[in-house]
Amino acid sequence: MALLQLIARRLIQLAGVLLGISIVTFLLLHMAPGDPARLLAGDRASAETIAVIRSQYGLDLPLWRQFLTYLMNLFAGDIGQSLRFQRPVSQLIQQFMWPTLFLTVYVVCLAVPPTVALAIMSARKPGGTADQVIRLIGIAGLTIPVFWLGIMMSRLFGVSLGWFPVSGYGVGISEHLHHLFLPALSTAIWLVPVLTQSLRAALIEKTTADFVTAARAQGASEREIFWRTILPNAVLPTLNLLGVMVAFMIGGAIIVETIYAVPGLGTLMIGALLGRDYYVVQGLTLVFAMSTVLVTLAVDLLTAFIDPRVRL
Amino acid sequence: MSRTEDVTRPLLEVENLTVGLGEFDAVKAVSFHLQPGEILGIVGESGSGKSVTCRAAMGLLPGAARASGRVTLEGRDLLTLGEADWCAIRGRDIGMIFQNPASHLDPLRRIGKQIAAPMVRHLGIGRREGMRRAIQLLDDVGIREPEKRARSYPHEFSGGMKQRAMIAAAIGCGPKLLIADEPTTALDVTVQARILGLLKDLNRERGLAIILISHDLGVVADICSRVVVMRHGEVVEQGPIDDVINRPQHPYTRLLIDSQPSRKTYPGTKTEPEQAAPLLSVEKLSVSFPVRRDLIGGLASNGESFLALDGIDLQIAAGETVGIVGESGSGKSTLARAIIRQNRPSEGAIRLDGQDVHALGGDALTGFRRRVQMVFQNPYDSLNPRMTIAEAVAEPIWRHGLADRRTAQMQANELLEMVELPRALGDRMPRQLSGGQCQRVGLARALALKPQLLIADEITSALDVTTQAQILELLLRLQRERALTLLYISHDLSVVSGICQRVYVFKGGRIVENGSARQVLSAPQDPYTQELVRSLAQLGPVNPAPVFLPV
Amino acid sequence: MANASTLPEAAPPVRGMTLSMMVAMAILGGWLFLALTGPLIAPHEPDAIDIMNMLSPPSAEHWFGTDQVGRDIFSRVLFASRVDLFLCVIGVLPPLLIGTTIGLLSGYFGGVVDSLFMRVYDLTVAFPFFVLVLAIVGVLGPGLVNFIIALTLVGWVSYARLVRAEVLTIRESEYIQAAKCLGYPPVAILTRHVLPNAIGPIIAYAVSDAVLVMLAGASFGFLGMGAQPPLAEWGVMIADGQAFVQQAWWICLFPGLAAISLGLGFAFLGDGLGQMQRRQATA
């Protein structure tokens, strides 16, 4: 019951954020220097073409009318037409989204087990040798440019050793797994340190928590205390961070996909940016924002499910 | 001690226990013993080593600590036990409860499960049976609707209920000994009295031996038969409670007893107030806070609000010392904050010499700031951690243009001297001082503007009892010397009635009783005040009944 | 714990440098030195094309080898350090200043400003950071200046949020109540009492943000949305070398290592600052 209330409340909150997102993406197109009609028509277009485009896209109307039109179109599921592909942006996104989704899930699966293992090893003896080494590796991992790591790994494992393909997506799950291994790994290498640091800090904090002392005073063994008391309490902050990071990764996919030529949303975005295909940029930004909001919502609900205090 | 006890083997014996934490010994050669079914008090101020001693007896010392000596439970040496043996004893033979029940319960697990866990662990019973017994235990410790409450989470419990739940979890396996480490310190006085009553009942009905650790001699005297007094990691005195309290041998014990607010008399405050127009008058004051809805931020405030103060009427005459007593949430601090204009009244007015305080502006407001000042509760939090204390005391002087910055600095040094702080401390940061020293700085800062009315909000509640006595003496000396009007706010009726002429008793945002301090303490009218007076854990009258006196 | 009746000894100074701090100083100092003296040290002109020495591996003449048009990688890495170091500073400072100011006001005064800010915050975090910056740069047009503009537009929000959270706690502390009660003007309370106590975590965050900014800058250079060729910038150099990575790994390797080492400098600085703050808190 309380959970339902929370969902309802979050959905109302969501409506505001979604409206804001639509305003930002709408304004994005209008931030471009110069005449939007000229940009849409391309550099070599004649004055007549521009005029046609202007009335066709409603660019001669006042801004708020244009926004209303945009909003109506959004509700109808129409997020514009790609100038380059001459297809609706929504179709393009449907076509390109699967590799990106697959990659994101893949990264999370690759990143979570080592995170938990490393954090536990680290937190077992804070300041010990294992902890120091893990901390140093973590600091280093954070500073490696993902695109550089991607290039270097594709050269080593792909070209020199020939273990993995260095581009494309393949057909079927096993080929996906094989093709996307290097892209997923290079992202995970960056993600693991961030999550490990958070989980380690939370574990250490909870280890000294009063309720752990109390559990010990009631005769619980160290093993039981760790699994039943410390870990559940420590997972919460990391779960939130994971949510933020997944959102971050959907964006970060742009770089990895470019390097490994994965036909995903990132590749689509870069192509659109370089080709000045603004409606695709706008549509993708909208979709990225929506998925971030959804991920955050999912994490919030999961947190509320674990932590009774959130359900107020 | 020299008294010959009955010859039964002691339940717990501590011999020459020394606990080292790093370089320094937190506990030095401590010895005491506990008979079955006895309640033993260990009393001492912060840093006396009383908690460390008991944690050593539970094997709960931090990893870096070294313990030597002997601790035996029914003849079995505890200090040499391995971890597995410890796990079999903790929660089974010895139970423990803690100072802050809120932080000692796992926030993610239901109360019933947490109470059942030790029984499932130690007694080999099933989960269902464990839950059944947990509900019974909740009933035993006086929690209403135990079946429903067993399904609650800790955050749904009040402070007193959490401590009852902790007790239920600790006694579930029928231990022989319960160690209670400051079990009532975080609770309101009336709740404290009920929890102490529960402990007494458990002792009587189940023959449970209890070690009660407390900083409060009054609490210990209330329920213990013997007491151990500790200071700086050493036992300074131990013996039957009446002997120790009535014939203390050690000077420190004597100081401790003399510092008890109920024993202490403060000179020169009981003069009758002049019959004049009140300096400060509070008229039908109500303060309400909107109940925060995180929904659409502050946009949709749907009129729901919490009434922290509800129609308060109160007068303070010049030169008077007025006390306000109340438990947490009674609105006493809200009143203080309303007087210094940090809470806006929703109704009513506060007048200083007839002028509405909340209508002031410009120079009149500056004038008001100079006339009314306040000292705060938390010694460390009330001083900016990034300023030396001399800077902190000098700042009001130069900001109000009473002197240039250099002269202000000199005046600050004089103020520090006035509150009996050595001049050399002026360059220290607050965290380099003790709590009592910080409160002195707070007092000096408040007096820098030479105010007429001083508000003291729980200024000693974070301090040890001997420090409290010193601060109160200082406060009253300054009041005499500077002809201050004093509004003293505290949860502790005995302190308030000890230093104030008139007392207002607050409950739930209303005044339930007011009158002269003596009258409120000796003949309380309102049922709540009566309960408050009953709850006072006191050492008893200064001259005990002759029965206890040896001839 | 010192007991109440004796004066604590003069507290030990908490200034002692941690190992992380010293490593950070060495790395950052080294890069600053190289960036300042780059033109004097560099053995070659960074943009000098040498068709005779295309894609030549590291040697005594070209320490880090040459790229596809024969430019000396070592010299280009040196010159690029000026761009990337500059990026770190200029990419962090405007969001830091704007964010701190807004966070202070929003947290201390609350009210409409605060509600408004929180809505902006909710909205901004709804976008993946990288996507929003990329979209803004894409629309404004690729280039370093537009990158900094986009970074500031998006980045100030995190600083403001962090400062606001600090201020919300500090605002409730008794020394702020005391300052109000003593009638200090709001500006004095903000600058002398609130800001000095709020700034620690912000500085630590800014340092770790510098790593992110540097990586983002290099990434944008790599994607062709940041620094534009032929300007020597580590990301741009890596992008240049990507096509030749099979024959000439050194074109990509060295700029990447340079970026990592600069990043390590900032990361260790952040680590050291964090350690010192923790030490101060427990001292």
From TrEMBL, chain A:
<dbReference type="GO" id="GO:0055085">
    <property type="term" value="P:transmembrane transport"/>
</dbReference>
<feature type="transmembrane region" description="Helical">
    <location>
        <begin position="133"/>
        <end position="157"/>
    </location>
</feature>
<comment type="similarity">
    <text>Belongs to the binding-protein-dependent transport system permease family.</text>
</comment>
<dbReference type="InterPro" id="IPR045621">
    <property type="entry name" value="BPD_transp_1_N"/>
</dbReference>
<feature type="transmembrane region" description="Helical">
    <location>
        <begin position="96"/>
        <end position="121"/>
    </location>
</feature>
<keyword id="KW-1003">Cell membrane</keyword>
<keyword id="KW-0813">Transport</keyword>
<dbReference type="Pfam" id="PF19300">
    <property type="entry name" value="BPD_transp_1_N"/>
</dbReference>
<keyword id="KW-1133">Transmembrane helix</keyword>
<keyword id="KW-0472">Membrane</keyword>
<protein>
    <submittedName>
        <fullName>ABC transporter permease</fullName>
    </submittedName>
</protein>
<keyword id="KW-0812">Transmembrane</keyword>
<feature type="transmembrane region" description="Helical">
    <location>
        <begin position="177"/>
        <end position="196"/>
    </location>
</feature>
<dbReference type="InterPro" id="IPR035906">
    <property type="entry name" value="MetI-like_sf"/>
</dbReference>
<feature type="transmembrane region" description="Helical">
    <location>
        <begin position="12"/>
        <end position="32"/>
    </location>
</feature>
Automatic annotation (TrEMBL), chain B:
<comment type="similarity">
    <text>Belongs to the ABC transporter superfamily.</text>
</comment>
<dbReference type="Pfam" id="PF00005">
    <property type="entry name" value="ABC_tran"/>
</dbReference>
<dbReference type="GO" id="GO:0016887">
    <property type="term" value="F:ATP hydrolysis activity"/>
</dbReference>
<dbReference type="GO" id="GO:0055085">
    <property type="term" value="P:transmembrane transport"/>
</dbReference>
<feature type="domain" description="ABC transporter">
    <location>
        <begin position="12"/>
        <end position="257"/>
    </location>
</feature>
<dbReference type="GO" id="GO:0005524">
    <property type="term" value="F:ATP binding"/>
</dbReference>
<dbReference type="GO" id="GO:0015833">
    <property type="term" value="P:peptide transport"/>
</dbReference>
<keyword id="KW-0813">Transport</keyword>
<dbReference type="InterPro" id="IPR017871">
    <property type="entry name" value="ABC_transporter-like_CS"/>
</dbReference>
<dbReference type="InterPro" id="IPR013563">
    <property type="entry name" value="Oligopep_ABC_C"/>
</dbReference>
<dbReference type="GO" id="GO:0005886">
    <property type="term" value="C:plasma membrane"/>
</dbReference>
<dbReference type="InterPro" id="IPR003439">
    <property type="entry name" value="ABC_transporter-like_ATP-bd"/>
</dbReference>
<keyword id="KW-0472">Membrane</keyword>
<keyword id="KW-0067">ATP-binding</keyword>
<protein>
    <submittedName>
        <fullName>ABC transporter ATP-binding protein</fullName>
    </submittedName>
</protein>
TrEMBL record, chain C:
<keyword id="KW-0571">Peptide transport</keyword>
<dbReference type="InterPro" id="IPR050366">
    <property type="entry name" value="BP-dependent_transpt_permease"/>
</dbReference>
<comment type="similarity">
    <text>Belongs to the binding-protein-dependent transport system permease family.</text>
</comment>
<feature type="domain" description="ABC transmembrane type-1">
    <location>
        <begin position="81"/>
        <end position="270"/>
    </location>
</feature>
<dbReference type="GO" id="GO:0015031">
    <property type="term" value="P:protein transport"/>
</dbReference>
<feature type="transmembrane region" description="Helical">
    <location>
        <begin position="85"/>
        <end position="109"/>
    </location>
</feature>
<protein>
    <submittedName>
        <fullName>Nickel ABC transporter permease</fullName>
    </submittedName>
</protein>
<dbReference type="InterPro" id="IPR035906">
    <property type="entry name" value="MetI-like_sf"/>
</dbReference>
<dbReference type="GO" id="GO:0005886">
    <property type="term" value="C:plasma membrane"/>
</dbReference>
<dbReference type="InterPro" id="IPR000515">
    <property type="entry name" value="MetI-like"/>
</dbReference>
<keyword id="KW-0812">Transmembrane</keyword>
<keyword id="KW-0653">Protein transport</keyword>
<keyword id="KW-0813">Transport</keyword>
<feature type="transmembrane region" description="Helical">
    <location>
        <begin position="247"/>
        <end position="269"/>
    </location>
</feature>
<keyword id="KW-1003">Cell membrane</keyword>
